[in-house]
Each structure stands twice: as structure tokens, then as C-alpha cells.
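ok so i was messing around last nite and threw this chain in just to see what happens. nothing serious, just curious
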Amino acid sequence: MTEELFRADAALTECDAVVTAVDERGVQLDRTVFYPHGGGQAGDRGELVLADGRVVATSDTRKGEQPGDVVHVLADADDLSAFKPGDRVRARIDVARRRAHMRFHTATHLLCALIPHPVDGCSITADYARLDFHMTDPLDKDAIEAGLARLVAEAHPVSMRWITDAELDANPGLVRSMSVQPPRGTGRVRLLEIEGVDLQPCGGTHVSNTAEIGALMVKKIEKKSASTRRVVLAFAS
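result:
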């Protein structure tokens, strides 16, 4: 298993690691700061620096075949030959991309607090974030933007803690998503709490305070089906 350093500290931008496996999919490390695509959040990009100083770009990060494995996808597959198990590397993420993911992901939790309906779709990228809500009522764009602005300005602390699978099973109401289930398999589940606003399982990366999200705008609201309303967020500046 890859030690996922971002789970405990999303502010980490680089780490030293050892190559554990190399195949056509990419490079696996014993530890990483790279977030793999999952839970609606896009995977990190960045670079792997070899011991001789050579810098190899990565284009994506994906989950491996086994639970807990993280695969660093190289931008150029020809660079795979530069890696072998046992090599020491330094892993560095694209900080601007990660920061956007963190801001947007926390913003979607604010959106969940403002729209108390189950979520049946999610996408978090560096350019936008969207949530699909299982509901039939119309949504007010101006009211949502005002609510987001208020929650950002109130500077609510954001923190995480772990609970057991059994504790989650005993509190099914914590799960808001219909399409993405909380990451399981290790016997514990991470809860993301925005103090006084939201509490739900989440394995993604987040800012430490809602004030760090910055100004948001509702880019569009769509009726995707008779029972689905899509809200797309963008940064206002």
C-alpha cells in the first residue's frame, strides 16, 4: 500500500519516496503527496525528481488495482524506463492545481449545507466544481451565491477526524452522496467537518478555513432530469 500523506495534511506539496512498482500504467511509490482521482475529485499532476536530478512530468494520478495503491501516470510513457523498484525519488505536486481542488472541494461541502438534498453526482477540477442534487424544486442562483459568500466570510474552521466503519454504519445519515460511497477498506473512514456547517465522510483534499476558498460564483444551474438539479461553481476572481 502507498502511504497517502495528503490524507492527514493536504498542505504538503512534496515528499521523498521509494519506487515500489513500475508498469505500463505508471509508477507506484511507498508514500506520496499526490491525490489519486476519486470521490469526484480529479487526480494531481506534478513531477517526479530522480536521484540524478532528472525531472519527469506526471499527467495524472490514479488508484491502483489493489486497495491503497496509488499510480503516478507519466506524461510521456517513454520515461517509464527511467524508473525501477528501489529507486529514490522526490514527488512534487502542481501546487496551483491542488490549491484549486482544495478550494472547490470545500466549497461543494458548503453547497451541500445550503441545499439539503442527496447528491447523485460530483466533479471537482481546477476550473470548476459541480454537484448534482436529487431534487425537483427550482434553485435560486442569487440566493445560493449569497449563502456561499456568507459561509466563506464567516471563516469556519475545517478539520478532519477518523471514525470506524461500524460507527459510520450506525450513523447512515452522515452520508450525503448517492453516487460516491465513502472510501472503505482500512476499517476506518475519514470525516470532514466544517465547524457549525457540515459534517460528512470525505477522502478529498480541503482548505483549513472557509475564508481560504475566496469569492465564488454559480456559473449555471441546470435541470438534468426530472429529479436532478445540477449546480456548477466557478471562482469569481
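not much to say yet. The chain has a mean pLDDT of 93.
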